[in-house]
Structure formats: structure tokens, C-alpha cells
Automatic annotation (TrEMBL):
SMART domains: Kelch
The keyword Ligase is assigned to this record: no
Stored InterPro entries: BACK, Kelch-typ_b-propeller, Kelch_1
Top-rank lineage group of the source organism: Eukaryota
Residue ranges of domain BACK in the record: 1-37
The protein, known as: Kelch-like protein 7
Keywords: Kelch repeat
Signal peptide per UniProt: none
PANTHER family xrefs: KELCH-LIKE PROTEIN 22, LD33804P
Length: 399
């Protein structure tokens, strides 16, 4: 209203359009009747007055009837609220969210023990933890609904294995490679349909590999690096390939500049970044990116830290390295790589995640507190409903 009153002569023509964006049912009935309805600009505009009265009538409806009003009577949803989730086991502070907005950590409740050499992927409000082992290979797939804060289990891949990789695309989770306990790397490629909750074996990769990276870009599934043969002593790869779900075929790509395994692999602005990891002779600080358009790998600024394993994720234009192992110690502080400026920043006041063998993925927590918000609104409207009803003359003014 202040905006309208500032230049009422020129802005009054926009009044209906502006107030049409206000969700009056979410405003308390008392405020609507005593303040909003009493505003002269609204009193003199029948369309705006009708909006206010509709908002007041909302408070007289039953909860069931309120649901029928749709979006106009519910809080607006935020578009996205990205956090980075890390899962390191069932001990306190072993599973946490990292909020890139303020570099803060918060705990995630987790009832399951840590898996060795598992993988994780997020799709449609659910985190899926696949593969890995404890004393024996784990067949089940642990699932965490971030909106409901609930854990449950489903059937995992048909071939339980360690050191596999996974990514999601269009409602399907694709798992690649890995190795069965004590065995060589596999070329196995499987697909889990989250809608039908069923697994299918797809065309095998062109090269068997484990401890590799996998990511989705433009609907295609990319796998890069890893090791062939034995996971401990096998040859480290720079080989890369891509799978097209529409043709169900694999195609070999230009190889990375350096061979690496246990590296980070993320997509930012149509580039696939390979970060750190273990090379043929030890830990790497090197970073390179694959330009999808030109099928070429190019060097980027090296990390200010050298890691045998790198746990990272990207939100926006920034890649966050949140955990890692160096051979004689773990990553101490969070690292940020700003892709636009090709520069690294060490966050000296933000400690890294303490579990170096954790699982990491980006999740969208938008809507996590929606139920609590609605409970608050309902309690407020219930209290307002106990106030005296608006004058009958006001309600009849809309007819």
C-alpha cells in the first residue's frame, strides 16, 4: 500500500494487479478486518474489496474446504534450497548437511551403519545409498526422504558390489562398474526405475572399471577414470565414455589429461570437472574439465591440497570440496573452487567433514519445513476464528 500511496495518481491503475499477488487467506482475519479493509483505497475499489472479503471468508471454512482453494491459500514454495548431504555412518555427527549459503553444518539422523565403498544419488526428494559392504556385500538400498526425514530400505542392484558409481536422470538411477569382494572390476551397467521400483541390466560399459566417477549432463551418462583389474593394484585409467539412454549405446570420449581414481566428478555450466584423486604415483592436486561441446579436456587451477580421495559437490558456479584423505591425514578445512574465475579459496574458519570415506550428494531441501509452516498458519487462523465475526454489512458488500 505504501508503494501505491507514494504516487497514487499514476499507480492506482495498477492496484488490482498488485493486490492480486497478495495471498489474503494467509493474513489474519483481525488484520484484514481492522486494517486492510479499512484502507480508503481498497474501500473505493470493488475488485480489491472483494479480494479482501474472500480472504476473510477463508477463515470461516473447514480445513477440507480450505484445501479446495488451491495455491492461493497456501504459502509460496521456494524454487530450490540446495544443501550438500554427507553420509558417514550412524554415529553422532556422522551424517550432516552443509549449507553453501552460510557454510554451516547441521546433523542428519541416520540409523544405518557406514558402508565401505558405496555410492549415493539424489532424485525427487529421496537419497538412495547403493552398494558397498560391511563384513559382507550389502544387497539392500537404503533410502532417505529429505522432506519427511524418514529412512526405509528397498531392493538394491542384482549384483552387490563395492566401488561402483551412480547418477540419476529422468527418474532413473544408473549404476556403473564396481567390483565384487576380492574380484576384478566389472563392466556391469544397471538401471533402477524409481517409478516402477524395478532394476534392469543395460548394455555393458566399453571398459570394466571401479572407483571411478559418474555424472549426468544433458540427459547423457558420463563415466570417467577409475581403475581396471584389482582395485588396489590395478591400472589407473584416464579413459572416459558416455551412455545415451535413448539409443542404449556407449561411446568412447577423449581421455582425461591425467589418469585418476577416487576423484571428484561434477558438472558446472556444461563442463565436467575431474578433481584430485589418486594417480599412478600418488595423490593429485590437479583439476581438469571436459568441454562437452568440443570433446576436449582442459587444465584448470590446481587445488591447494593434494588428496588420494576427494569428496566434492557443486551448487551454482562453485564446487565445494568437503572431505578427503591425503594418505597421512584428512582435509582440514572446506575448499571452494570458483569456476567463473578459475580460483580456489580455503575457508579457514569452516572445518571439513571428519569422515573421509563418506558419501556425498546435492539435495534440494525446499519444502522441508512446509508442514511446520502450515501448522503455524493453521494455529494462527484458528485463534483468529475465535475473534468476533466481521459485520454482516461487510460480507454482504461483495454480493
Amino acid at each position: 500500500m505504501r508503494w501505491l500511496k507514494y504516487d497514487a495518481c499514476n499507480r492506482q491503475c495498477h492496484m488490482v494487479e498488485v493486490l492480486g499477488c497478495v495471498r489474503f487467506p494467509l493474513v489474519s482475519k483481525t488484520f484484514l478486518s481492522k486494517t486492510v479493509q479499512a484502507e480508503p483505497l481498497i474501500q473505493d475499489n470493488p475488485q480489491c474489496l472483494k479480494m479482501v472479503i474472500s480472504g476473510m471468508r477463508y477463515h470461516l471454512l473447514s480445513p477440507e474446504d480450505r484445501e479446495d482453494l488451491g495455491e492461493s491459500s497456501r504459502p509460496r514454495r521456494k524454487k530450490h534450497d540446495y544443501h550438500i548431504a554427507l553420509f558417514g555412518g550412524s554415529q553422532p555427527q556422522s551424517c550432516r548437511y552443509f549449507n553453501p549459503k552460510d557454510s554451516s553444518w547441521t546433523d542428519i539422523r541416520c540409523p544405518f551403519e557406514k558402508r565401505r565403498d558405496a555410492t549415493v544419488v539424489f532424485w525427487d526428494n529421496v537419497v538412495y545409498i547403493l552398494g558397498g559392504s560391511q563384513l559382507f556385500p550389502i544387497k539392500r538400498m537404503d533410502c532417505y526422504n529429505v522432506l519427511k526425514d524418514s529412512w526405509y530400505s528397498k531392493l538394491g542392484p542384482s549384483t552387490p558390489r563395492d566401488s561402483l558409481a551412480a547418477c540419476a536422470s529422468q527418474g532413473k538411477i544408473y549404476t556403473s562398474g564396481g567390483s565384487e569382494v576380492g574380484s576384478s572390476a566389472l563392466d556391469l551397467f544397471e538401471c533402477y526405475d524409481t517409478r516402477t521400483e524395478s532394476w534392469q541390466v543395460k548394455a555393458s560399459m566399453l571398459m570394466a572399471r571401479c572407483s571411478h566417477g559418474s555424472t549426468e549432463a544433458n540427459g547423457l551418462i558420463y563415466v570417467c577414470g577409475g581403475t581396471m583389474g584389482n582395485n588396489v593394484s590395478g591400472r589407473v585409467l584416464n579413459n572416459c565414455e558416455v551412455y545415451d539412454p535413448s539409443t542404449q549405446q556407449w561411446r568412447e570420449l577423449c581421455g582425461m589429461r591425467e589418469s585418476r581414481k577416487n576423484h571428484g566428478l561434477v558438472v558446472v555450466n556444461n563442463r565436467i570437472y575431474a578433481i584430485g584423486g589418486q594417480g599412478a604415483v600418488g595423490g593429485l592436486d590437479s583439476v581438469e574439465y571436459y568441454d562437452i561441446a568440443s570433446n576436449e579436456w582442459r587444465a584448470a587451477a590446481p587445488m591447494p591440497w593434494r588428496g588420494l580421495t576427494v569428496k566434492c559437490a557443486a551448487v551454482g558456479d562453485i564446487i565445494y570440496v568437503l572431505a578427503g584423505f591425503q594418505g597421512v591425514g584428512r582435509l582440514g578445512h572446506v575448499l571452494e573452487y570458483h569456476t567463473e574465475g578459475d580460483r580456489w579459496v580455503t575457508c579457514t574458519t569452516v572445518r571439513a567433514f571428519p569422515v573421509t570415506s563418506c558419501l556425498i550428494c546435492v539435495v534440494d531441501t525446499c519444502g522441508v519445513n512446509e508442514d511446520e509452516d502450515m501448522d503455524l498458519i493453521d494455529s494462527q487462523t484458528h485463534a483468529a476464528a475465535e475473534a468476533p465475526p466481521p459485520p454482516a454489512s461487510l460480507l454482504s458488500a461483495s454480493s
